[in-house]
Write a structure and sequence with these properties.
Blueprint: H1 2-18, H2 22-29, H3 45-51, H4 54-62, H5 64-67, H6 85-96
Helix pairs in contact: 2-6, 4-6
Length: 101
């Protein structure tokens, strides 16, 4: 029984260690233009979280130049950021954590 508990705790610890920290990725790539709850150069995360889905956020990060019209913008100044799939997923989750704030 103790062995099963140790295995389960090890697995949870391993899975947690493999999750990327969306906040750290945000601070590295997004902080210059976006803040969590205040308007900076770009909209704040709480505003984005109210308007966009998980998939839409990732699509805009992946290719802002091809998504801005679909989002109803006249232009985009957001540059394409070369992130891995996992980094984009972590950023999208972090942004959506501000929904309702």
């Amino acid at each position: 029984m103790k062995k099963n508990i140790l295995i389960a705790l090890s697995l949870v610890s391993f899975l947690s260690a493999n999750e990327l920290d969306g906040k750290k990725i945000f601070e590295t790539y997004c902080w210059g233009c976006h803040h969590q709850t205040a308007v900076a150069f770009g909209p704040p995360f709480n505003e984005i979280a109210q308007k966009r889905t998980y998939e839409e956020i990732q699509a805009y990060i992946l290719s802002p130049e091809s998504m801005y019209k679909a989002f109803g913008y006249k232009r985009t100044v957001m540059t394409k950021i070369d992130l891995t799939d996992k980094e984009r997923e972590a950023i999208a989750k972090y942004i959506l954590s501000y929904k309702g704030k």
